[in-house]
Structures are given as structure tokens and as C-alpha cells.
Amino acid sequence: MYAAIDKSELRGIINAIPSKSFAHRILICAALCRQPTNIVGKLDSEDFMATKGCLQKLGVKFEEVNDGYIITPANKYNQNCMLDCGESGSTFRFLLPVIAGLGISATIEGQGRLAQRPMGELIDVLRASGVSISNDVLPLCVSGNMTADIYVIRGDISSQYISGLLLALPLLKRTAEIIITGERSSQSYIDITLDVMASFGVKINPTPTGYKIEAGQEYNSPKTIAIEGDWSNAACWLVAGALTGDITVTGLNVNSVQGDRYIVDILKNMGAIVYVADNSVRIIKSKLKCIEFDADNTPDLVPIVAVAAACAEGVSVIKRVDRLRLKESDRLAAIIDMLKRLKIKAIHDGALKIRGDKLTSAVLYGYNDHRLVMAGTIAATVADNTIIMGIEAVKKSYPEFF
User: Fold this and answer.
1) CB of 224 closer than 8 Å to CB of 268
2) Predicted local confidence at residue 194, as pLDDT
3) Per-residue model confidence as pLDDT tens digits over 200-245
């Protein structure tokens, strides 16, 4: 599928969709309780459906209600079922250790680029703890129990490894510790995990080298929990406001642990006119200046910030972007290709450097990457007569985007 987009002035109010990052974690924590949980907030993205579908295969019941779901945990988890994670890295990296923590057997498969995304470090750590995993890539069979008390894992590959272990270790009913080696990337996503687990009564103690999970804890339903608004996807609309008109995004927790709320500071630093209220952000078309920022904690912002940089005066420098090569696409190469098609100079020489200029009409490709499609769409509203191919990729996180 494709979209033809003319230069546009965007004005209006948009309600943020529920956060995919929070939703994955809330669903899993609710499934690990003894009691039902009422979840306020609905998503129909492919990644959300992948986690929901896997939990249903394990025997967890979902009752759809007007404003969300009632999740009833399984009395006994199903054994030897096939779990399809789709293209969701979060689903796989969270559920693999959780299944091992529960001591059940399952086969896990995935689609698209998921098999090419990093998973070896997590598999090695689980094997070292006594879990049997049949393969180094998907599909794989998992069985056995986690018997180790200490789990040593690198912090610079994927924060989802650490989040998956955090979700799993309270199931062991004994004290366990995670030791994180090397540099720690995307800490804000680990903070989301800790925030959700605390809502379900599980306390994680930080240590100088990682985290300690004390024995005797279990997941307890908060009875009702709401999925807060998604800053990652709201960022596209906020940049659109800065470039084209006047946009307000509502339903946002301005004090969220989501790292992508940093988009507000980025746009302020670029000179955007920004108004922040209790649960909303308004941004008005502004003349933007170049920026330098470190993307290590907010990698999902890079595509849309790159679009803002392309429209700004001067050369913007976005640091620590190498991990983007291992996303749904080679996201770094895709961003550079998108910008060059729009006649914007962009290079990667250890950092992503973008020289702002006038965007011209182009044919853009979605690269089967939801964030590239959304970023390209916002860029198209500034250029003239732009076509974007492969727009169906937005179904992964934001089916209602168009």
C-alpha cells in the first residue's frame, strides 16, 4: 500500500494512543497474578496482539470490555504450546525468560526480521541457569527451570533482556540478582518495567551493578490499571506541529518514566514554541535550529527527530545511533536513505549528521518499519507531492495513524 501526500498545514487535537511499552508489561504482569485485572486502554497493534495471543495460548483469558480488557490468569498454564511472537522483539524477549521462570515447555516462533534481531546473549544466560533451549535462532523450544541465583548480562545490547529477567525472577520464589556488565543502554525502558512491576506489588532493589529481587514476592493484581499514553508515537505529531501548524496531543503523562517524553525538551532546544499542561502538550509551527543529542536512551525518537533536523537551520548531530541497525529494519541506513531522497544531506561517521534544508518531493519507502513510515509521512507534509510506499507497516504499533 502507498500514500500520496501533499504539502499540508496540520492543526488540531489528537489523543495519544495507549503506550505499547507499558501494555506489553502490564499484560504479562496481569497474567502472572492469581486474581483478575481490569486493564483500561485498548490497542490493536500487531505487537500488542502478539503478546496477547501468546498469553492466550498459555491459558490466560481475555474478556474485552468497553474501555479495555479483563485478564484472568490461568489456573494451570498450558504446556507444549506454539507461541508466535510475530515481529515483536518485546514479546519474545519478555516471554522467553517468563516461560523459563514458570518452568513450562513451549515452542516459540517469530516472523520477518525478528529472527535476525539480537537474542543470543539472553539465550546463553538462560542456558547457563539450567534452561534447555533447542536453537540459537527462532523457532526454538524451551523447557526446564531457572536454577541460578545470579544472572550476569550485558547492558549494551538490549534493555529488553534485562526487563525479561526482571519479569521472570520473582517467579523463582527465592532471592536472585541481575548483574549488568558494560554500558547500560535504554535505561528508560527498564524503568518502565520497574514501574509496572511495582504496580503489581513486586519490589526490585537496585544495586551498584544491577538489581536484586528478594524472595517471597508474587504478582498481586491492582484490580484496575490504566495504560498511559504513548510518547513514542505522540512524538510524530509534536514534530508535525513544530513543522507545519498547531497540534495538541492529549492523554500524556508529562511525568512519565517513558524516555521518549524527552521529545518535548528536544523541540524546546530546537526553538519550538511548546506549551505543557497537566496531561497534554501543544506545539506551534516554529523556526527550528540544529541540535546535538545523545540517542542512547531514546532510540525510537531518532527517525522523527531526524525529520525535525532536516527542516532545521544548520547541522544536527545525533550520537550513539549504531543500535538502530538492529531494529525492524536497518533503521540507521533507512533514515539516511529517506533523507537523501528528500534531497537532505545526511551521513553517519560515528554519529548521524544532518544538514537542514528545503525538503523536495520524493518517493519514499517504508522499509517494513513503522517508525520510518510515520517519520516519512511527517516529512511529506513539509515537502511537495510525496509518495510513501509500504504504509501498512504502521500496523505494528499505530494502525490508526493514517
Assistant:
1) no
2) 98
3) 999 999 999 999 999 989 999 999 999 999 999 999 999 999 999 9
Residue 349 annotated among the catalytic residues of the structure: no
Report which of 69, 72, 74 is spatially closest to residue 39, judged by C-alpha positions.
69
* Cell numbers for 256: 512519565
pLDDT at 117 over 80: no
Q: Give one word for 367, left, alpha or beta, with left for phi > 0 and alpha for psi -120 to 50.
A: left
Residue 370 and residue 328 in contact, taking contact as beta carbons nearer than 8 Å: yes
Instruction: Considering the candidates 67, 300, 337, 357, report the single residue annotated as catalytic.
Output: 300
Give the pLDDT of residue 125.
97
Residue 399 clears pLDDT 80, i.e. is over it: yes
* pLDDT of 161: 97
What pLDDT is recorded for position 384? 86
Using CA of residue 68, residue 74, residue 77, residue 81, what is the dihedral sign?
A: negative
Bridge partner residues of 176 (DSSP): 213
Domains and CATH numbers, the chain: 2-16+229-396 (3.65.10.10), 20-212 (3.65.10.10)
Q: How far apart are CA 366 and CA 23, in angstroms?
A: 25
For 349, residues 6+ apart whose C-beta sits below 8 A from its C-beta are: none
CA distance 205 to 212: 5
**pLDDT over 80 at 328, yes or no:** no
**Residue type at 231 in one-letter notation:** W
**Mean per-residue pLDDT over the chain, rounded:** 96
54-65: per-residue pLDDT in tens? 999 999 999 999
DSSP secondary structure of 303-362: HHHHHHHHTSBSEEEEE--GGGGGSSS-HHHHHHHHHHHTT-EEEESSEEEEE-------
Q: Are 185 and 296 in contact (CB under 8 A)?
A: yes
**66 grid coordinates:** 468497553
Separation of alpha carbons 368 and 389, rounded Å? 9
Q: What is the 3-state secondary structure (H, E, C) of 363-376?
A: EEECCCCHHHHHHH
d(CA 338, CA 398): 20
What pLDDT is attached to residue 295?
A: 95
Looking at residues 326-351, what average pLDDT do you find? 92
Q: Residue 287 is which amino acid?
A: K
